[in-house]
Write a structure and sequence with these properties.
436 residues; 51% helix; single chain; elongated; membrane; ABC3_permease_C
Length: 436
């Protein structure tokens, strides 16, 4: 019967191509608008590390005080050097990584080639294991390298291609600002989106880094902070004075496998802030935060507000298109009242009328979904006109979006057809036969 009703529906749609085209266009445009904005929203609100997002936590300690806090009383987004080092040295977490953004001039061995300015991070050995960074060659440096302030580095595939033509580079040396670092590992070009571990510097979206060096060695070499730097008051001149100042520029992430571990670490944070208060460094009550990945992204409002507004508006547009489709289907189905009356008189039940007309509506939904896919492709190409390029390039069409577009189109059309179908099923066969 499904095949028979599908044939009837297709034949009915062909009888009035203008009306059919109007319905297909309405569904296609409504679905395309909602799917285009959903693609952007999905890209910016996804879980960047779903396998571990519940056990990775960002650490905040208020070293500014209420006079310098925002209206919500939030601590600064980052930590100063004193707090970051004290908390990491305590080793209260399974793993921890202190990170800051650096930039370095990479000098090729070939003197005929110009130096390249590359962005990177100074961090801890645990960084790579915590965040499941994928390695192509070698591996991360060790905790012992951290303690020894070793001149080692992990580089990205793209930088390896530039310096070593993609060959084996583990054990070779790379020249950063005139200082030699031994390559211990090469990673796949890695930039989870949103870039959760460096929201203060990137806003959550960035191309990723080309090199990573040990934090202790970077501090020894006075590699300047290439990211944000916020100070409650201007620090004194000099690198050592900067390290001892209250300027915040480092992030601390910890891995806590269980809820009890997170509770214990939060209590430790509160106790640490209270200890600083007793020592006279803080004159305010402890104000700390410990948030997992998704809570951190939500607190930092990483999802662009324009993507949320656009999604709501597009869903409203889809609803308007469906309302118009309801009216068109109602006119189309009721025009066929004599045909319905004859079918009912010959023994067709109301459920048969429902099946026939809902399958016909599903056919319209399929056609609208195909048109919606084409328009969604055009919409994604034009996303850059509304959103910044670093966000627009994240919106892509993949098999899941194709399937979702078709499913939404068919379901929306079938739902829109319920009321017209119900009205059509109420046709009285006796009255139709008598009047016709």
């Amino acid at each position: 019967m499904f095949r028979y009703y599908l044939q009837l529906g297709t034949r009915s749609l062909r009888r009035n191509p203008a009306l059919t085209l109007l319905m297909v266009i309405a569904i296609g445009f409504g679905v395309a608008a909602s799917m285009t904005t959903y693609a952007v929203f999905r890209a910016t609100s996804r879980d960047p590390i779903p396998q571990k997002s519940g056990v990775l936590y960002n650490v905040q300690v208020d070293n500014f005080g209420p006079d310098n806090s925002n209206d919500q009383g939030e601590p600064p987004q980052a930590l100063n050097y004193i707090d970051a080092m004290a908390l990491s040295r305590a080793h209260k977490a399974t793993r921890q990584a202190v990170t800051y953004r650096v930039g370095a001039s990479v000098i090729p061995d070939n003197p005929s080639r110009l130096p390249m300015q590359e962005g990177g991070y100074a961090t801890s050995a645990d960084f790579f294991t915590m965040f499941d960074v994928p390695f192509l060659q070698g591996g991360p440096w060790t905790a012992d390298d951290d303690q020894k302030h070793a001149s080692v580095a992990v580089i990205s595939k793209s930088l390896n291609d530039k310096l070593f033509e993609g060959g084996q580079s583990v054990g070779k040396q790379v020249n950063l600002d005139g200082r030699l670092f031994r390559v211990v590992g090469v990673i796949q070009d890695w930039a989870p989106q949103p870039l959760f571990f460096d929201v203060p510097n990137t806003g959550g979206f960035d191309d990723g880094a080309s090199l990573y060096v040990p934090l202790n060695r970077a501090v020894d070499l006075r590699m300047p902070n290439n990211g944000n730097n916020n100070c409650p008051k201007a620090p004194e001149q000099g690198w050592e004075a900067y390290l001892q100042s209250e300027c915040v520029w480092l992030s601390l992430w910890v891995e806590l496998p269980s809820k009890s571990d997170a509770t214990a670490f939060r209590e430790y944070l509160t106790g640490y802030a209270a200890e600083q208060q007793r020592a006279g460094r803080f004159s305010w009550a402890p104000n700390v935060r410990l948030r997992n990945v998704m809570d951190w992204l939500a607190a930092q409002k990483v999802v662009p507000p324009e993507s949320q507004v656009s999604l709501i508006v597009s869903l409203g547009f889809l609803a308007i298109c469906l309302v118009n489709t309801v009216g068109l289907l109602l006119a189309k189905f009721l025009r066929r009242s004599p045909e319905i009356g004859v079918r009912r008189a010959l023994g067709a039940a109301r459920r048969d009328i429902y099946a026939q007309f809902l399958i016909e509506a599903g056919t319209i939904g399929i056609a609208g979904g195909v048109l919606g896919l084409l328009l969604t492709g055009l919409g994604i190409l034009g996303v850059g006109l509304v959103f910044p390029e670093r966000i627009a390039r994240l919106a892509t069409i993949d098999p899941s979006l194709v399937l979702l577009t078709l499913v939404v189109s068919i379901l929306a059309t079938v739902i829109a057809a319920f009321y017209p179908t119900w009205r059509a099923a109420q046709v009285q066969p006796a009255w139709q036969l008598k009047s016709n």
